[in-house]
Design a protein that fits this description.
heterodimer, A: alpha/beta, Rossmann fold, six-stranded mixed beta sheet, 11 helices, globular, B: 281 residues, four-stranded antiparallel beta sheet
């Protein structure tokens, strides 16, 4: 990270950029797993230098890119309940765990060993274990990886639900269509620095900066450029509206 | 000339009630680039393992029908012998990296050393794979010190260096950034143009549609459709949760609104843009 300053809150924010741009590192810094050498990170006003990652765990949750780095219990239910059981009374912890498993659509697999699930299901178990903590801030690192259409729909519903509860949702994404559709703010990173920061329509329209970051605009925007539109739509619906207006 | 042929292939995992592969019959020609799509759990990865012999030699269970690859009947040929004909890259690169080697270079050479090839041949093939997968920067690093995306490319390089006639890629770009994914798909297409038969499982429909000659759509262990991207993505997939390329979705929406029904649809950025501009009226 090189001289990064950011104020996050209110808007759901996606971080994009090439592998190695520093996106996951920034998430680990926010979560307090890494501590900045210079500069400060404040989470709800608490400096991550003075607050242990364990204390921060009740306020900020991070769902790892690779669920295997996160999952260690023999039953899906125990995995998801591990965090809540440490900060809540037993009954509340059970209730939250059940609710989180229902949210990701895996309650029927609560007694299964997580390692008997597919990778995409295991990613949802990892997500449930963070959701069950009911933190103010939830970070998803590459949530769409390996998910099929149904998994993507489940993810979209989870994000909408979290936003509706007034939580701050952050994500690291390589899927530009998903980033543009589901997030209000996009931060483009390259070499540990922030190149661009703004709403999806504006960020993805800045072709020069995207090229520098090695990132392509979402497919819908590429189609609009190719069709000679002056506007830069990021969703299918806005593309079609512009298309029919031109007829 | 067909290099892969399946006839009424059926397979059921041990302790499971339902067929994971349900009467699959198809044939694939040498040098074809085949995409495999379907929901998670549709049988895509199981099918891949039925081609390289892990089904039924490693995963036991009930097996019926026949599959032949390059003239060998899979259930009558050992996994060792099949491994020189059919190479496979798994979805999770961590399970593929041997852990026996200290550098990326040695890791990629591992399979070739086991074949007992001459040193000069090994060096030539490893260098070629490193160049094709853009791994020069990390050649002396430990495979376990790499990012997920880099590891994924190392796993691919190790397989390519073996030069099997048939290469299977199970979600080869799931951990790569868009530029890395583009590079890997282009590398795979180069292999197919050079006569290698490739099968790629992926959820990245835009990329598959651009590169594949034909696409298999699987659902519940069955082969629902097997056709060119232009014909396959024009079909209705009722009850199957599979997305089409975004470009195709937009064209189909416009077609439906205009009462147009077509047996083929554009599936690439360029094709869709051309269609949309032409039909703007």
């Amino acid at each position: 990270m090189n001289d990064v300053s950011l104020d996050l809150g209110g808007e759901s924010t996606a971080f994009i950029g090439q592998n190695g741009a520093g996106k996951s590192t920034l998430m680990k810094l926010l979560k307090g797993l890494l501590v900045p050498e210079r500069g400060d990170i404040l989470i709800n006003g608490k400096n991550t230098k003075d607050t242990s990652a364990a204390k921060l765990a009740g306020e900020i949750g991070l769902i790892f890119q690779n669920p295997n780095e996160q999952i260690f219990k023999h039953k899906v239910f125990d995995e998801v309940a591990f965090g809540p059981r440490r900060i809540m009374d037993a009954r509340e912890a059970e209730a939250r765990t059940a609710a989180a498993l229902r949210t990701v659509g895996l309650f029927h697999k609560k007694d299964v060993n997580p390692y008997d699930l597919s990778l995409s299901e295991r990613k949802l178990v990892a997500a449930a274990s963070v959701l069950a903590m009911d933190t103010d801030i939830v970070i998803f690192d590459e949530p769409t990886m390996g998910q099929d259409e149904k998994g993507i729909r489940t993810l979209k519903a989870i994000l909408e639900d979290l936003k509706g509860q007034g939580k701050l949702v952050l994500a690291v994404l390589h899927d530009m269509a998903f980033a543009a559709e589901c997030f209000e703010r996009i931060v483009v990173m390259a070499h540990g620095e922030i190149l661009l920061d703004g709403p999806p329509e504006a960020v993805f329209a800045n072709e020069e900066a995207l090229k520098k970051a090695g990132v392509e605009p979402p497919p819908v925007m590429q189609l609009a450029i190719r069709c000679g539109f002056t506007e830069r739509p990021v969703t299918k619906e806005s593309f079609l509206r512009l298309y029919y207006e031109r007829r | 000339m067909s290099i892969i042929k399946a006839e009424a292939l059926r397979y059921k995992y041990p302790m499971q009630d339902e067929l994971a592969l349900d009467h699959l019959s198809f044939s694939i020609d040498k040098g074809e680039f085949i995409g495999i799509i379907g929901e998670n759990g549709a049988g895509k990865s199981t099918l891949c393992q039925a081609l390289n012999g892990l089904v039924p030699h490693f995963h036991k269970g009930a097996y019926g029908g026949t599959v032949t690859v390059a003239g060998k009947t899979v259930h009558e040929t050992s996994v060792g012998e099949l491994s020189t004909i059919v190479g496979m890259v798994f979805e999770n690169p961590v399970v593929q990296i041997t852990g026996a080697k200290l550098t990326v270079y040695e890791e990629i050479a591992f399979g070739l050393e086991n074949l007992g090839l001459p040193r000069s041949t090994i060096i030539e093939r490893v260098d070629e794979a490193i160049e094709l997968l853009n791994l020069a920067e990390v050649r002396d690093k430990s495979p376990f010190a790499l990012s997920g995306g880099q590891m994924q490319r190392v796993a691919i390089a190790g397989m390519i260096a073996m030069r099997p006639e048939i290469m299977i890629f199970d979600e080869p770009t799931s951990q790569l950034d868009p530029q890395g994914a583009t590079e890997v798909f282009e590398a795979i297409e180069t292999l197919s143009r050079n006569g290698v038969t490739v099968l790629v499982v992926s959820h990245q429909m835009e990329r598959l549609a651009r590169h594949a000659d034909r696409i298999m759509l699987m659902h519940g262990g069955r082969l629902v459709a097997f056709d060119t991207p232009e014909r396959l993505f024009a079909m209705d997939f009722s009850g199957i949760s599979v997305r089409r390329p975004v470009y195709t979705e937009i064209v189909r929406t416009v077609q439906k609104a205009g009462g147009i029904s077509a047996e083929t649809v554009p599936v690439t950025l360029e094709g869709a843009a051309e269609w949309l501009v032409k039909h703007r009226g």
